[in-house]
Specification:
CATH superfamily of one domain: Vaccinia Virus protein VP39
GO molecular function: S-adenosylmethionine-dependent methyltransferase activity
Organism: Arthrobacter terrae
InterPro entries: Methyltransf_11 (IPR013216), Methyltransf_Superfamily (IPR050508), SAM-dependent_MTases_sf (IPR029063)
Structural class: alpha/beta
CATH topology of one domain: Rossmann fold
Radius of gyration: 16 Å
Number of helices: 6
Pfam family, one: Methyltransf_11
GO biological process, one term: methylation
Strand content: 15-25%
């Protein structure tokens, strides 16, 4: 399992409890040591969505939580998605978790912020994922 954009590695021990092998990839060099010290069962590498330091078809599951390549008008993110698909085994699973831009507290904050326009409009992100052949599902949490 690959945790792409693993940050401080918070989720790595939880994934390691269930996966045969866990790899974290993080672009921020300041977070690498924290992620590496989180659990000895995970391997943490420096890299990014566009440059994943793993071989072709080398992981079964990729998880990206609030991370790297969420599409916005002017940021297509196709390079990151292509690289991710390179390392994902055929039949593997990609799980991307992002903030809801339509419902909930984040959407309310986004609507009144100067960051709203670059984030796109309410249909932009789901339409982008659909054009990539992805299935999306809304999961509301607290």
């Amino acid at each position: 399992m690959l945790d792409l954009g693993c940050g401080t590695g918070f989720w790595l021990p939880r994934y390691a409890a269930h996966a045969r092998e866990v790899i974290g990839v993080e672009p921020d060099v300041d977070l690498l040591q924290r992620a590496r010290s989180r659990t000895p069962e995970a391997r943490v590498l420096h890299g990014s969505a566009e440059h994943i330091p793993l071989g072709d078809a080398s992981v079964d599951v990729v998880q990206a939580r609030f991370t790297y390549f969420f599409p916005t008008p002017g940021n297509d993110c196709s390079a990151g998605l292509s690289e991710l698909m390179r390392v994902l085994r055929p039949g593997g699973t990609l799980v991307v978790i992002d903030n809801d831009q339509v419902n909930g507290d984040f959407a309310d904050l986004l609507a009144v912020s100067s960051a709203a326009e670059p984030q796109g409009y309410e249909d932009y992100v789901p339409d982008w994922w659909s054009a990539q052949g992805a299935h999306t599902a809304a999961v509301m949490s607290t």
